[in-house]
Design brief:
Blueprint (H helix, E strand, L loop, with lengths): L13 H9 L12 H16 L14 H17 L5 H35 L5 H11 L9 E2 L5 E2 L2 H14 L5 H4 L7 E5 L7 H9 L1 H4 L9 E2 L6 E4 L3 H10 L1 E4 L2 E7 L9 E5 L7 H11 L4 E6 L6 E5 L5 H10 L8 E3 L6 E5 L7 H8 L2 H4 L4 E8 L2 E6 L5 H5 L3 E3 L2 E8 L13 E5 L3 H9 L1 H8 L3 E3 L8 E6 L4 H13 L2 E6 L2 H10 L3 H4 L2 E4 L4 E6 L2 H13 L2 E7 L2 H9 L2 H8 L4 E5 L2 E7 H16 L2 E6 L4 H7 L1 H10 L4 E5 L4 E6 L2 H14 E5 L1 H5 L5 H15 L4 E3 L3 E5 L3 H14 L2 E6 L2 H21 L3 E6 L2 E6 L1 H42 L12 E7 L2 E6 L5 H10 L10 H8 L1
Antiparallel strand pairs: 1-2, 3-5, 3-7, 4-5, 6-7, 8-10, 8-11, 9-10, 12-14, 12-16, 13-14, 15-16, 17-19, 18-19, 20-22, 21-22, 23-25, 24-25, 26-28, 27-28, 29-31, 30-31, 32-34, 33-34, 35-36
Helix pairs in contact: 3-4, 3-8, 4-5, 31-32
């Protein structure tokens, strides 16, 4: 799990991760004894592709804006100095520069004072901050002592303790000049060809101008090497120094200045090279000789690369003049020993390295102080297949590393100090040029074609093949020929055809062992670290032949598991056919739930990567559909496939929980199209009439009709209790048949109406209604209980409803007309009745109170004939519309 902590999951592509997790068959990773390991490896593989690594946060504090402004002003003024010719103006500008530097110093002091103030204020809340501040700016250190000598004596004297600590410091923790200047390593350059009367301000102005020199701000003041035309310059940025060195030659005020990296010569003060001894001189013999004659305390003796040559480490600093005189005056077995100083050693030569051990493994091992007594590594460079040069940033760890036994991958390593012979360092830097080649394989190739290279460069330079290492070709040349040399080498490299082929790790050793002949070695260069084969040659046709030979040895067969949806989408994209056309010689077969690739390794790998890209882009959604649609979908896959092909939709599907379908498509556009196809393909309708006939004899007819539909349209529809789902191709036919069936059903029904209408129809129009029913074949037409009862189809019932409605409209219009006439007549009779006087003596001249027609009914009221029952009948017959305005109405109410 620690590896999974490296990733920044806030920036992860979760959509892609989820898609990849969904297409994995987890049963393969969750079974077996090593299932935990397989599961974690798969998760890490997905994270590596879709999750970026965490960015390391810089611990450097940003430079305040005010200080940046001051630094920019200072830089502009420095540039201005190179253009000034007047001493007065130059002094004026320099005074401004000094004032700016004073302001910068003041800003630094203010920052320190503010930091001190904050530390004091927060001493209670955050003591760690205070202690960190005091430690950073402390001028004193804890007291040391007392110390104990090797013989057990205790030393309290400060002077003696200082001498003891100095000796120990120089012998074990000595800081060399290289390490003291380590912070400037990679930022310091050596400028050659500078005239003695050339002003340093002009050089500084030039190299700080990014447009002119590709440089930048310079750290401190330049240093002119005494009695030479060389100047040392240190930049604030390594990138600026690198850009300047790339240019090599700079034109400054009509002077051509050459630029190279500055390498300070530092001597190894506690080591020396001893040579010219007797043939049988051993390490013990040399140790005894030196300790006896000079009383040197020898720490360790290492054999050199030549017989009779030894590297001798001493406990303390060596007095070389005295040692040389001693060797001259005291020969060893008649041989006068030769003593030489040596440049500081910060590298070791590691031999007998197993082929399973990579440069990264060596760097991790020797960079671990506890495991190897080493330290920070600056580089690890292979010399041969089993020999590497490991360089440390600190030279004081080399001796500790070499005195310790080392073992990697069960193989014992031979570790010795590595140094360059003195004669290799005597060539002036002005006469030697390191030309960077594209790779170390280019240098190996050129070494095998020395005659061609020497012939091309013989006019301008000499190639130091012995000193050319890694990817650097060392040349001895005259300065004026540098441009011609670089152009010649550029043309030479352009004439080389290079082919690089990735070789599978499990096949690398077998493939590399196949090409071992001398002719093959002229072309093939195998990189075991990166599992690559490099093919180089001047003849392009020969390189292509060698490449085809290698590819023939890299044929492989691989297979991947696919889900049915992945295979459908790949087929829709015609991936399998296009892959074979795209990659010559590649065969792709899709069998069941697998796809098999057979061909050259690189083509198979590329084709698989293309397939994975398509699978990662697959999108998915869940579409709700009418209930039981899934039954039809499963039976009509060919029909759906045909529709998708016609509309050029690339997708697949699977039924969900009965009322949904899960859709898969190659992208969101095809997913939307697939959803539209699904919605238009499956049509649902409700069957409301089924509920009406549930408990009637018609329901049995309906069930028989449903069975006939299923036989006529198998797998095209599903008919539920009160709904139907069908495919668009047959939905109209099915709907038409259901409508016809519904129209053929006989229903018992009735038509309700008001009482007055019922009485009227019953009395006057019943025969007409019966005739209409016989004409339209309506059965059991009967007026009863204020209703018209009948039996027939929906169409017949509808005709009768329309017929009755028209009759009722006629009745209503006549009622309105007669109601108006009746009101006028009633008012006239009432007025006459009220004006008539009845005298008992005379008797009743008229026995009728009123004689009135209402709605074609004649109502005759006499004084002795009105009873409660009569009142009720009249009111009911009038349906409550008899107006009570006195007269007849009043008499009726009074009588009632």
């Amino acid at each position: 799990m620690p590896k999974l902590c490296r990733y920044d999951y806030h920036q992860a592509n979760w959509e892609t991760i989820n898609n990849q997790l969904q297409i994995i068959d987890w049963d393969l990773y969750l079974t077996g004894p090593d299932k935990h390991k397989k599961f974690l490896n798969k998760i890490e593989e997905i994270c590596e592709k879709n999750v970026p690594l965490k960015k390391t946060k810089s611990t450097k504090k940003p430079v305040p804006r005010e200080r940046k402004i001051l630094m920019c002003k200072r830089s502009r003024l420095r540039n201005k100095t190179s253009k000034l010719t007047s001493k007065h103006e130059l002094q004026k500008v320099l005074d401004q520069i000094y004032r700016l530097e004073d302001n910068l110093k003041q800003h630094n002091d203010e920052e320190r004072n503010n930091a001190e103030k904050r530390a004091i204020e927060n001493i209670k809340k955050n003591p760690k901050c205070f202690y960190s501040f005091t430690k950073k700016y402390s001028n004193t250190k804890s007291t040391i002592g007392p110390l104990q000598r090797q013989n057990g004596d205790v030393v309290n004297n400060p002077i003696e303790m200082a001498e003891m600590l100095g000796q120990q410091y120089e012998s074990v923790f000595r800081i060399s000049a290289t390490s003291m200047e380590g912070e400037d390593e990679g930022r310091t350059i050596l400028v050659s060809g500078v005239p003695t009367d050339f002003r340093l301000e002009a050089i500084q102005s030039y190299f700080e101008n990014k447009k002119r020199s590709s440089g930048g701000p310079i750290k401190g003041i330049q240093e002119r090497i005494q009695d030479s035309g060389e100047v040392i310059i240190t930049f604030e940025s390594e990138k600026d120094a690198e850009n300047v060195v790339k240019k090599k030659v700079h034109n400054v005020s009509k002077h051509k200045l050459q630029v190279d990296w500055y390498k300070n010569l530092v001597w190894q003060e506690d080591a020396m090279i001893v040579s010219n001894g007797p043939k049988d001189m051993s390490e013990k013999m040399l140790t005894d000789f030196l300790e006896e004659n000079r009383k040197l305390e020898i720490v360790h003796v290492f054999p050199g690369r030549k017989p009779g040559t030894f590297l001798v480490y001493c406990q303390s600093e060596i007095d070389f003049e005295y040692v040389q005189r001693m060797c001259q005056n005291n020969p060893l077995k008649g041989n006068q020993l030769k003593v030489e100083r040596i440049k500081e050693i910060n590298s070791v030569q590691v031999k007998n390295v197993s082929s399973n051990v990579s440069s990264e493994s060596l760097q991790r091992y020797f960079g671990n102080r506890k495991k190897s007594s080493g330290g920070d590594i600056s580089s690890v460079q292979p010399q041969t297949s089993d020999t590497y040069i490991v360089s440390f940033k600190e030279a004081n760890v080399v001796l500790d590393v070499c005195r310790m036994q080392h073992r990697l991958e069960g193989v014992k390593l031979d570790v010795q100090p590595f140094w360059e012979p003195s004669e290799e360092n005597t060539i002036s830097s002005q006469q030697v040029h390191d030309y960077l080649l594209p790779s170390k394989f280019h240098l190996t190739f050129l070494k095998k074609h020395k005659n061609i290279v020497n012939d091309q460069l013989k006019k301008w330079a000499e190639v130091l093949w012995k000193n050319s290492k890694n990817n650097k070709l060392k040349l001895k040349y005259s300065k004026e020929n540098l441009e011609e040399i670089e152009q010649c080498l550029k043309d030479l490299l352009n004439s080389i055809t290079v082919e690089t082929i990735d070789v599978p790790d499990d096949m690398f050793e077998d493939v590399a062992g196949t090409f071992k002949s001398e002719e093959d070695k002229m072309y093939f260069y195998f990189d075991i670290q990166n599992s690559q084969a490099h093919i180089l040659g001047f003849d392009k046709s020969n390189v292509i032949k060698m490449k085809n030979r290698l590819l023939d040895n890299l044929r492989t067969e691989r297979e991947d598991d696919l889900s049915i949806h992945e295979r459908r989408i790949l087929s829709g994209l015609r991936f399998f056919e296009q892959a074979e056309r795209q990659f010559e010689g590649l065969k792709v077969k899709a069998e069941s739930n697998k796809v098999i690739f057979e061909g050259q390794y690189s083509k198979v790998a590329n084709c698989q990567n293309n397939m994975y890209e398509i699978l990662r882009s697959i999108v998915k959604s869940e579409l709700p559909l009418p209930l039981n649609t899934g039954i039809i979908i499963n039976n009509k896959t060919e029909y759906l496939d045909e529709k998708l092909r016609n509309k050029k939709c690339i997708g697949s599907w699977e039924t969900g929980d009965g009322d949904s379908v899960i859709l898969y498509a190659s992208d969101k556009t095809h997913l939307s199209l697939l959803e539209e196809i699904m919605k238009e393909t499956f049509v649902a309708n409700t069957l409301d009439f089924v509920a009406k006939i549930k408990d009637t004899p018609n329901y049995g007819k309906w069930m028989t009709f449903v069975e006939s539909l299923k036989e006529e349209f198998p797998d095209f529809c599903f008919i539920g209790e009160n709904s139907i789902v069908a495919i668009d191709a047959v939905v109209n036919d099915i709907k038409s048949k259901i409508d016809k069936f519904e129209q053929s059903l006989i229903y018992e029904s009735y038509i309700s109406m008001p009482l007055e209408h019922f009485l009227f129809l019953k009395e006057f129009i019943e025969q007409e209604i019966n005739d209409f029913g016989e004409k339209n074949k309506i059965k059991n037409v009967c007026l009863k209980d204020n209703k018209l009862h009948l039996e027939g189809t929906q169409e017949q019932l509808m005709k009768m409803e329309i017929f009755i409605e028209n009759l009722r409209k006629d009745i209503s219009s006549k009622e309105a007309q007669k109601t108006e006439e009746g009101n006028n007549f009633s008012w006239e009779k009432q007025m006459k009745s009220e004006s008539k006087k009845l005298y008992p003596a005379l008797g009743s001249e008229t026995k009728e109170i009123v004689n009135v027609n209402y709605k074609n009914c004649e109502i005759v009221l006499r004084e002795g004939d009105i009873t409660t029952l009569d009142t009720d009948a009249i009111v009911n017959a009038a349906n409550g519309r008899l107006e009570h305005r006195g007269g007849v109405a009043a008499a009726i109410v009074q009588k009632g």
